[in-house]
Write a structure and sequence with these properties.
The chain is of the alpha+beta class. About 35% of the residues lie in helices and about 15% in strands. The protein has a five-stranded antiparallel sheet with strand order 1-4-5-3-2, with helices on both faces. A two-stranded antiparallel sheet has the order 6-7. Strands 8-9 form a two-stranded parallel sheet.
């Protein structure tokens, strides 16, 4: 018998285990203390076991190059895509890789769920995501189940001039907050909505690295929207983030499936983002501290965290939002290592340091 189960990891806490057969979704989605499952997710969860058991639908790889272990689940009548499933045991891993080495094999699915949970109010537009198990004799696969987003291609198929500044900045702020190590044009879906183009960020299996180091250059660092002043809406959202609350939530929802190292990365990313917003830096300017254009070069952040003195970036910002002296010292170190950055930074930054 084929069936699909949704795990309560993001719904009512890991202690609740599995829903059981998804014929009624007893509680679960509807009783979530954080976010409710949408009708689309419920439809995907309900349609998948029916489609599998009747042989009218199956998991299939999407037509995207370079995607490993990713499958589409289609509606059993109209054949329309409903969800994307990524099994944990098919995640790409390479402990010798300077980036992939910071991510334990099989942890990507839970990082994808963490991305959805952290995207409060759907600010960046991360699609609804859950942990699910597909039972298909003779094996069982656990992985990430994400609602499929209808799209017209990805950012590589469109010029960045078509994207609204605020839409790009929402994604950039999210990536910096979660220390995303994998943001290229292929994982930014584009959907035409009248004369505008909506961006949907996907593929978040490489967020919240186990250790803090230089991160690969994201596609939005090459776009002019990231260099523009932060919009009031983005700035307000960033300053309203509460990293302690976020960490408590992830511990409650994901339990042992989220490491302390990953939570440290979230604290670092959120704090650095808020500090730099107070200094009126653009997202591009913040990115210069975090990202490196090549694996041979270390970013300022990558060099910074070789010094244990600065491991707790949370100490750099006081509860009242004011900057501590330690922040100025960190920024001075940034300028001493990269003096050319001074020309890019605002007058407020120069006055602070």
């Amino acid at each position: 018998m084929n069936s699909l189960y949704a795990k309560n990891a993001l719904l009512n806490g890991p202690e609740d285990g599995y829903f059981g057969a998804l014929n009624g979704l007893k509680g679960g989605c509807q009783n979530s203390p954080l976010r409710e499952c949408s009708p689309t997710m419920i439809q995907a969860l309900a349609a998948a076991p029916i489609a599998f058991s009747h042989g009218v639908s199956s998991m299939e790889r999407p037509d995207r190059e370079g995607v490993s272990g990713t499958y589409l689940i289609r509606d059993n009548t109209r054949r329309a895509p409903l969800a994307v499933f990524k099994p944990c045991d098919e995640e790409v891993s390479d402990l010798s890789d300077p980036v992939l080495g910071d991510f334990k094999p099989g942890s990507g699915a839970f990082r994808e769920v963490a991305a959805y949970l952290l995207d409060t109010q759907g600010f960046a537009g991360v699609p609804e995501t859950s942990i699910a198990s597909v039972h298909s004799r003779p094996e069982e696969k656990e992985g990430m189940l994400q609602v499929y987003v209808q799209n017209d291609g990805d950012a590589d198929d469109f010029g960045p001039s078509l994207f609204e500044t605020e839409a790009v900045q929402k994604v950039a702020a999210f990536d910096l907050r979660v220390m995303n190590a994998d943001r290229h044009g292929g994982n930014l879906l584009v959907s035409r909505e009248g004369s505008s183009h909506r961006l949907t960020p996907i593929d978040h299996g490489l967020i919240l690295p186990e250790s803090l180091r230089s991160l690969p250059w994201p596609v939005w660092m090459n776009w002019p929207q990231a260099k523009a002043p932060m919009t009031p809406k983005v700035r307000e959202y960033v300053m309203g983030l509460n990293v302690d609350r976020d960490i408590k939530m992830l511990r409650a929802k994901l339990g042992d499936n989220i490491s302390e190292g990953s939570l440290d990365a979230l604290r670092c990313g959120t704090t650095l983002l808020k500090v730099c917003v107070l200094l009126n830096l653009s997202l591009y300017e913040i990115g210069l501290l975090v990202y490196s254009p090549s694996t041979e070069e270390k970013s300022f952040l990558g060099s910074l965290f070789e010094d244990v003195k600065y491991l707790d970036l949370g100490s750099l910002i006081r509860p009242d939002g004011a900057l501590d002296h330690g922040c100025n010292e960190v920024l001075r170190r940034a300028l001493s290592k990269y003096p050319e950055l001074l020309e890019l930074f605002s007058d407020d930054f120069a006055a602070c340091v």
